[in-house]
Design brief:
OB fold (Dihydrolipoamide Acetyltransferase, E2P); elongated; 238 residues; single chain; 2 domains; 5-stranded mixed β-barrel
Amino acid sequence: MKHFTQSMTLMGTVTQIDTTQHCFEIQCRSGDHFQIFISTETVFRILRNLDGLDRDRVPMPQNFDPQNLSQTLDRYIKPNALITVQGIYQEHEDHKRFDARFVHLLHSRNGSYLFEETHWWLTQIARLADQWLDSTFGERRTYRIDDFAALYRTNLNIVGLPTDDNIQEMATLARLIYGFSSAYLLTGSERYLLAATAGVNYQRETFRSLSHDGRYFLGIRKTSGALRYPHDRTVGKQ
């Protein structure tokens, strides 16, 4: 193959380390082996949660020089460590090369993983729930049915702001309530319980609109001065 270049992400176990050539080898689950080269532009990171905090606790060797690639490899890359690498893979005839741009370690200590720690999931769900609440309800810290009626939207634009279509669908609202409920069960934060409770009450008061044949509607769309129920949102039996 001639002149093949591709951005690639790999996950594998470190099998060899060559500090003189500034490279190491990983074996992927598929059995493929890749030789990974680093440079002074390569960024080494410890896996980050949604809070974005830097969790690099890898011991710093005495007189460590971050520009010294041999020292950098010796500090971060350990045999049998499971890591993820992002970079540029190139092939030219019989030559292959992978230049790493980012190397992600799964923990500061070899043999353990951050996502196996209890605090990881508590932080993860809290950041998600806080973002949902702040994006939807702003600075509110207590929630009522009227808050969901006025502010909840199913359709958002690419930056998370409301679109011209102000439909409220029960299916997506149910998933949001499930997220708040899960956050409360994991963290015990009353804020998430208040949001889940208000959301459930809003569902009951708003979407249980029975038609003459016992069918009910899953979506409402606000119009000037009234609510309109789109007929293409009906499902099943009560």
